[in-house]
């Protein structure tokens, strides 16, 4: 089972309303437990797969596009949501500059943040043009799938 399949499974479980799912194969076991507060993932992966997955961890992999949807029908702002579960980072490392700040203008393809999921660093890019109005998550905070990350005033 690869990271994409695991992410799809987590999305499915969180939307289905099931409290717990366990899958066990010959050399792989994953348990996903959910409640309204958090999603807990417990996976046991063979050492060979862990080593193979850790090798590209230094590189930043492009992620699935961030979900974009309006805040409310009468609102002029658009919410950019997390496309996955992981840890939210505003810069590539503590020494590097922050990707975007409140007031910055963005366009499609602008890197907004990084979400680390299972030692893979996924760049989250803008799909719209606009201006960052509010950053809704603190740096190095855990985020859930579909959690609002940014408010953007479209241009």
Your description of this structure?
It is a single chain. This protein has 155 residues and is mostly beta strands. The chain has helices at residues 3-16, 47-54; strands spanning 20-25, 28-34, 39-44, 60-62, 67-70, 78-81, 86-89, 105-106, 111-117, 120-125, 130-135, 141-143, 148-154. The chain folds into 2 domains: 3-57; 60-154, Beta Barrel (OB fold (Dihydrolipoamide Acetyltransferase, E2P)), CATH 2.40.50.100. The radius of gyration is 17 Å and the shape is elongated. Mean pLDDT is 77; it is low at 36-40, 47-59 and 70-74.
What's the topology here?
Elements (H helix, E strand, L loop, with lengths): L2 H14 L3 E6 L2 E7 L4 E6 L2 H8 L5 E3 L4 E4 L7 E4 L4 E4 L15 E2 L4 E7 L2 E6 L4 E6 L5 E3 L4 E7 L1
Parallel strand pairs: 4-10
Antiparallel strand pairs: 1-2, 2-3, 5-6, 6-13, 7-9, 7-12, 8-11, 9-10, 11-13
> What does the overall shape look like?
elongated
Radius of gyration using CA atoms only: 17 Å
The ordered H/E elements are HEEEHEEEEEEEEEE
- Outline the biggest β-sheet: 5 strands, mixed
Question: How many strand elements?
Answer: 13
CATH homologous superfamily placement of the largest domain = RNA polymerase II/Efflux pump adaptor protein, barrel-sandwich hybrid domain
CATH topology of the largest domain: OB fold (Dihydrolipoamide Acetyltransferase, E2P)
Helix count from the secondary structure assignment: 2
Determine the strand fraction and express it as a percent band. 35-45%
The helix content, as a percent range, equals 10-25%
Strands of the widest sheet, in order across it, are 4-10-9-7-12
* Structural class by sheet pairing and helices: mainly beta
Architecture of the largest domain, according to CATH?
Beta Barrel
How far the N terminus sits from the C terminus, by CA atoms, comes to 41 Å
Domains (count): 2
Mean pLDDT: 77
């Amino acid at each position: 089972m690869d990271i994409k399949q695991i992410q799809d499974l987590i999305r499915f479980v969180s939307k289905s309303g099931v409290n717990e799912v366990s899958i066990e194969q010959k050399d792989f076991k994953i348990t996903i437990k959910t409640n309204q507060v958090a999603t807990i993932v417990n996976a046991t992966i063979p050492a060979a797969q862990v080593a193979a997955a850790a090798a590209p961890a230094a590189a930043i992999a492009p992620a699935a596009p961030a979900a974009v949807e309006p805040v409310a029908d009468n609102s002029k702002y658009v919410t950019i949501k997390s496309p996955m579960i992981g840890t939210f980072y505003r810069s590539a490392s503590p020494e590097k500059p922050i990707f975007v700040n409140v007031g910055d203008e963005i366009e499609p393809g602008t890197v907004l943040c990084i979400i680390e999921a299972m030692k893979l660093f996924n760049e989250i890019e803008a799909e719209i043009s606009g201006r960052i109005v509010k950053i809704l998550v603190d740096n190095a905070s855990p985020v859930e799938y579909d959690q609002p990350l940014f408010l953007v005033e479209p241009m």
